[in-house]
Input
Amino acid sequence: ETGVTQTPRHLVMGMTNKKSLKCEQHLGHNAMYWYKQSAKKPLELMFVYNFKEQTENNSVPSRFSPECPNSSHLFLHLHTLQPEDSALYLCASSQDGAGGPYNEQFFGPGTRLTVL
Amino acid sequence: GQNIDQPTEMTATEGAIVQINCTYQTSGFNGLFWYQQHAGEAPTFLSYNVLDGLEEKGRFSSFLSRSKGYSYLLLKELQMKDSASYLCAASDSNYQLIWGAGTKLIIKP
Output
């Protein structure tokens, strides 16, 4: 495996279900991100982990719970979601949490989530 | 507040040149990124500018004016495979990326 992988690619869940999204990066990066992408809207940053520590939580509802057990893996645990949470959830990684050249973010293919 | 503006959609002809504009307002500034996203796929990195001026990379070039809060992506010799959304993102004082909604570029033969 190379780059950033995400599973599952598609997920349909009811509002009372509990599910988890998984992201894995094989790039040796130290920062990982969760984004929400809705149609015709800007990417919304949800969480940032830098060297396994959460450095950003952009006022995300508690029904989304991230977990970063190590620098290569990132999870997003979902429970009691709402239909408006239906979107593409993208994981990304970068060398570290700083910007600049050679520190661009590499994205996974995303999980298309539908909440019924 | 922080904001990125870019056109929603543009149409161009195969073989032609197109310029996609982006204006930004951020708290602090640590550079401007352009990404390409084909339908149903992940965004992929195209370019990064932090100093004023033009950066050229093959058929794609990116320009930045920090004083004007303005950037553009220039695509030359357009090919059908360039049909995609182009995302502009500015890095703020905390190195967070503030994203635009993307410009959908349609290439016609």
User: Anything to note?
Assistant: DSSP finds no helices and eleven strands in chain B. Residues 3 and 67 of chain B are 16 Å apart (CA to CA). The two ends of chain B are 41 Å apart (CA to CA). Chain B touches chain A through 23 residues (CB under 8 Å).
